[in-house]
Amino acid sequence: MFIGKLKHVVGAGVYATLLGISGVHADIVPQGKAEVAADDAWAFKLTPSYYVTTHEKDAFDLNLRAKYGSHAVWLGYYRRDGEFDQTRTGYEYTAQIPYGQLVPSLQLATHGFAGGSINAQVGNSIYALLGFGRTNTHDYYNLNFDPNDSVTYGFGTSQLPQSSLALFTVRDNRLHTDQVVTHAVWRLSSDDRHRWTVDLSSKHGRATVDDEPVSGNALSVTYDYQDVFFRLAQDRKVNFTTEDQTRFSIGLRY
Fold it and tell me: What is the edge-to-edge ordering of all strands in the sheet holding 21-22?
């Protein structure tokens, strides 16, 4: 993932990209193997999202991701009317290594934000997930909802019938917020046209060292039909605040 928790608007964050988990570009989903476009063709994904948060104005995000072989770049824009907006861009490279993959990533955004990560998948049908992320702690709205200055560890398997399962934890290891998010991500592909992805997570920690700790759960369900996908998520104590959030996304691959 570029996995990480960039704070609600006050920054600590990095998108960590843990092979198939891409917080930076809104795909927080481990896949067992990273999806790599054909070497001689560009592949694009456009994802508009709408966010409804308690006691806040609604917000939207637009993200365009492009892949060419092992290379991926993205450009995104987030806006909460009259309160905060941010443009971001990033790059990641998927390197094949013996018994797995290695994914370094870099992200830049307005308001002076910069972050990066390096993540690894070790193994094939049964694999370990490892990640490390760092940012310059400038202001950023966290769209992957995990700690960004963090370590990630877990495991997964693709040996289940028509499906894969990954369990992993993202833990703050820099900002003393005690933020911990644990995910269980299940993917089911019944055929070439239909796919379901369910991400169930649990969190505990503080938005900053001076805040009271909160605990909450989140559930995200994504349905893919051929080149179109729909996602609905409910997130309690989003980004370790006292607020709850509902997210709607629709996307197109082309």
Answer: 17-18, 21-22, 27-28
Q: pTM for the complete prediction?
A: 0.87
Q: How far apart are CA 136 and CA 149, in angstroms?
A: 9
Instruction: Give the pLDDT confidence of 160-171 residue by residue, as tens digits.
Output: 999 999 999 999
Q: What does the pLDDT average to over 184-202?
A: 95
Reported as a pLDDT band with limits 50, 70 and 90, residue 34 is very low
Question: Burial of 39 by CB count in 10 Å (0-12 exposed, 13-18 middle, 19+ buried)?
Answer: exposed
Q: Does the structure show a pLDDT above 50 at 210? A: yes
Strands, E assignment, 81-213: 84-93, 95-97, 100-109, 113-123, 126-135, 150-157, 163-172, 180-188, 194-205
Within-domain flag for 8: no
- In the chain, the number of structural domains is 1
Nearest to 145 by CA among 245, 59, 58, 68: 245
Q: Is residue 205 part of a domain?
A: yes
pLDDT over 90 (residue 100):
yes
Cβ contact 216:207 at 8 Å: no
Q: Give the integer Cα–Cα distance in Å for 239 and 142.
A: 7
How far, CA to CA in Å, does 117 sit from each of 14, 22, 90, 112, 120?
7, 11, 11, 17, 10
